[in-house]
């Protein structure tokens, strides 16, 4: 007798690193269905009815936190946002003690963003529900890479064979890391364009083509993905000045002219106009996908919440924590 494989063989979503190309395709295909549902007047489904989702954001967020909240609510879950600034974390409670406290309330889904790389994995080892990484330090931000992939796939019809240039603060960017892993897994060619101070020392190990000049890096590319300068993660001098950074690395129409004529522009947000991107480019309704990325974010997160709860919905909740 052959045992049927589960549609999605993971308990948690900690990083793109753990996903196979087939898992990525499963998420994107399901997200396509949720995009359509989210465009209807009635956006509500009840597949997560009775389930509890807790969002724990230790770092600031607009898009990711709101879209995880909307995603859970549109699938019928009870969603709670723990406010870190008014929680007992401020009284000195450790992350692990907070995790055990939350676990005792039996959440089925825990969405966490934390400033330390690896903190989300640690949480997943201590709780019974499914854990989703909403960004851990400069390590991974899997749902961002998935929503970016969905946006690209819907516009270009594929990921395979595309040339994607990721530009700016690669060093501190979990978005860049997750995107590089995903795009490589799906057969795209990835370039990074940045000053050497904003590249990791082991950049060669990422398997990307490295450029220090924007026009050279953007030449003939299909997608230009801009990144914010993560000043909050920088200690010391990484740049001579923001003005010089914009002159050399800010995306404007002149630099963009090196890319393919139908190249599309992306940015995970929040963007700093006049720092990494010029307003004329960011607001170009024909080429900028920035608002579309936000829309895709809700659908991708619904797909992830759906897939990660399928096992529990069919077989009942897990009793102990475990790895993905
Ligand atoms: C990114 C993040 O938090 O990693 N933003 C996001 O999730 N949309 C990128 C950033 O903060 O620059």
User: Structural class of the secondary elements?
Assistant: alpha/beta
* Overall shape: globular
- Say which molecules are bound, naming each kind only once: N-carbamoyl-L-aspartate
- End-to-end gap: 26 Å
Main traits of this protein?
alpha/beta; binds N-carbamoyl-L-aspartate; 11 helices; 4-stranded parallel sheet; 5-stranded parallel sheet; 9 strands
Describe the structure.
By secondary structure, the chain is an alpha/beta fold. Helices cover 37% and strands 14% of the residues. It has 11 helices and 9 strands. The strands form 2 sheets. It has a 5-stranded parallel beta sheet with strand order 7-6-5-8-9. Helix 1 packs across helix 11 (290-315) and helix 2 (63-74) packs across helix 11 (290-315). The longest helix has 26 residues, at 290-315. It is globular, with a radius of gyration of 20 Å. The two termini are 26 Å apart. The relative contact order is 0.17. Bound molecules: N-carbamoyl-L-aspartate. N-carbamoyl-L-aspartate binds next to helix 2 and helix 6.
Record the SSE blueprint.
Blueprint: H1 21-38, E1 52-57, H2 63-74, E2 78-82, H3 95-103, E3 109-114, H4 119-124, E4 130-136, H5 142-156, E5 163-167, H6 174-185, E6 189-193, E7 209-211, H7 214-218, E8 223-226, H8 242-249, H9 253-256, E9 264-266, H10 279-282, H11 290-315
Parallel strand pairs: 1-2, 1-3, 3-4, 5-6, 5-8, 6-7, 8-9
The protein binds N-carbamoyl-L-aspartate (NCD).
């Amino acid at each position: 007798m052959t045992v049927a494989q589960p549609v999605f063989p993971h308990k948690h979503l900690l990083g793109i690193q753990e996903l196979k190309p087939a898992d990525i395709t499963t998420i994107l295909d399901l997200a396509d269905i949720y995009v359509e549902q989210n465009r209807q007047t009635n956006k509500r489904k009840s597949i997560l009815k009775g389930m509890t989702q807790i969002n724990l954001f230790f770092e600031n967020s607009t898009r990711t936190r709101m879209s995880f909240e909307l995603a859970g609510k549109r699938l019928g879950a009870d969603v709670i946002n723990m406010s870190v600034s008014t929680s007992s974390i401020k009284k000195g409670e450790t992350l692990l003690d907070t995790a055990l406290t939350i676990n005792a309330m039996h959440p089925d889904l825990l969405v966490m963003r934390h400033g330390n790389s690896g903190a989300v994995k640690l949480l997943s080892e201590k709780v019974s529900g499914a854990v989703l990484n909403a960004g851990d330090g400069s390590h991974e931000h899997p749902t961002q890479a998935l929503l970016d992939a969905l946006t690209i796939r819907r516009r270009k019809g594929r990921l395979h064979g595309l040339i994607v240039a990721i530009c700016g603060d690669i060093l501190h960017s979990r978005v860049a890391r997750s995107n590089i892993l995903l795009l490589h897994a799906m057969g795209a060619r990835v370039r990074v364009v940045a000053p050497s101070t904003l590249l990791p020392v082991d950049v060669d190990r990422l398997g990307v083509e490295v450029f220090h000049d924007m026009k050279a890096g953007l030449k003939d590319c299909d997608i230009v993905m801009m990144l914010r300068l993560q000043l909050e993660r920088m200690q010391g001098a990484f740049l001579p000045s923001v003005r010089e950074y914009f002159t050399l690395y800010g995306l404007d129409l002149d630099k963009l002219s090196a890319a393919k004529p139908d190249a599309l522009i992306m940015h995970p947000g929040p963007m700093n106009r006049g720092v990494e991107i010029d307003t004329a480019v960011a607001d170009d309704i024909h080429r900028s996908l920035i608002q579309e990325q936000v829309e895709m974010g809700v659908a991708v997160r619904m797909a992830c919440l759906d897939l990660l709860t399928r096992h529990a919905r069919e077989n009942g909740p897990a009793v102990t924590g475990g790895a993905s």
